[in-house]
User: What shape does this take?
Amino acid sequence: MGKNQHVTPHKDGGWQVKGENNTRATIRTDTQAEAIQRAREIARNQESELFIHVYSTVKHVAKGLNLNNIILPQEINAMINLDNYVYRGK
Assistant: This one.
């Protein structure tokens, strides 16, 4: 299992993906949507979890959780494309 991934605002603008406890960003993007997409890919590849920091809170997307049942603010839902997502939980 790899490091959990965090999507947060970058101090110099844009968004970043950081592995848990890393001091530097793995990826820096212009949009939150792009950062979320890249973080999802990394988390899946590393079999880790994804944390999206939104409005000073953390939305925790746990491995094996049915993402189709998560209720997020509409503007965040618009950024996440789950068209190809298949729930494989129990």
About this structure: The mean pLDDT is 78. The two ends are 20 Å apart (CA to CA). The longest strand covers residues 5-9.
